[in-house]
Amino acid sequence: MSKKWILLSVATLLVVLVLAACGGDSNVSQEDPTEATDNTADEAADNTANEEENNEAGNNEAEPAEEKESYQFRLAETHAPDYPTTLADKHFAELVGERSDGRITIDVFPSASLGEESAVLEQVQLGSIDFTRTSAGPMAEFNEDFGVFSLPYIFDDDDHVWNFLLSEHGDNLLKSLESSNMMGLAYYSSGARHFYSSEPINSLEDLEGQKIRVQQNAINIDLMNALGASATPMDFGEVFSGLQTGVIDAAENNYPSYYSTRHFEVAPYYILDGHQRVPEVLVASSSTWEILDEEDQELIKQAAIDSIDFQRENWAEFEAFAEEEVRAAGATIIEVDDVSVWQEAASTVIDEHGEQYREVLDAIESVR
């Protein structure tokens, strides 16, 4: 083959290869890059809109309300189940239960089943017992401000007492219990305290030398000394046996306590001198109080305040009933025609202890 034909064949082959590389299937379309970008943006916008709709739908669903804590507390009471303060304790507990829809339960333990007042107050301070009803008398050992109620003959009558207790000054005394790891909730009525003895007492002179049970505080002890008697501190639950066995000759308390404890059976002479009007106090442990939120604290505080009228009404009824019963049982009731003799004898107690309560005594005088 000549050189000319060889060159022609190579040239022809090159042309074929070039045409094959540049050619293609005319039915296959080429994608526009701009169109692809636009499609991707549209899909992203659609996805974002769907997500926003889903989120909005989720936000419109009501979130379940947070369930509040439930509590079960104990309230210690010295007196019997049918005593006016115990009935008031139970009424207070019922109000708390109703207003909390059963979420807060307060069980009342009457008849000193959790201990006598002084021991219970110590447990309330420690948080071992949640609530208690106590006389303001032994409170003075835990908070000296409450000693003012032990001062003799500072109130004229029950109306005078409540004029003070429901005043700002009375409320401030309750608040002062915070320094003693207790929260004061409300006052209850306890009437007037009188002396009763196993021996006849017709005058102040008849108390001379008698061993008289008193609540444990310095003012009570000084009062007995001022009246010529011998003070014998003793738990309330031991008084009956003390009178019966002669460990003590006399005691002092109000009509309902004199009757309900049947002390009139062993000390049938009751002289109406009205030397003290010491209120009852409903208190809570600070440890218990601090676990409650503000709403529950307000609920319990208001329930305590709302139980006051109930207690006062029950007290007045029971006081009249107790007087009738002890008279019918043969107790000798001695009226005091001139209490000024007793007041004069007790004036040294005011002189010795009154100055530390001067502001409170002035407030008591102002509401007379």
| Alpha plus pi helix count | 15
Instruction: Give the averaged pLDDT, no decimals.
Output: 87
What is the global morphology? globular
Summarize the main sheet. Answer: 5 strands, mixed
User: Using DSSP, what is the number of strands?
Assistant: 11
Helices and strands, in order, run as: HHEHEHEHHHEEEHEHEHEEHHHEHH
The CATH class of the domain at 71-190 and 278-329 is: Alpha Beta
The low-confidence parts are 1-41
CATH homology superfamily name of the domain at 71-190 and 278-329: Bacterial extracellular solute-binding protein, family 7
The helix fraction, in percent, is 40-55%
Q: Give, in spatial order, the strands making up the sheet with the most strands.
A: 2-1-3-10-4
Distance between the amino and carboxyl termini: 150 Å
| CATH architectural grouping of the domain at 71-190 and 278-329 | 3-Layer(aba) Sandwich
Biased composition (Acidic residues): 32-55
Region (Disordered): 25-70
Protein name: C4-dicarboxylate ABC transporter
Signal peptide: 1-20
Compact summary:
Helix content is 48%, strand content 16%.
Task: Describe this protein with a few key phrases.
368 residues; alpha/beta; D-Maltodextrin-Binding Protein, domain 2; 5-stranded mixed sheet; disordered N terminus; carbohydrate binding; C4-dicarboxylate ABC transporter; DctP_fam; TRAP_DctP_sf
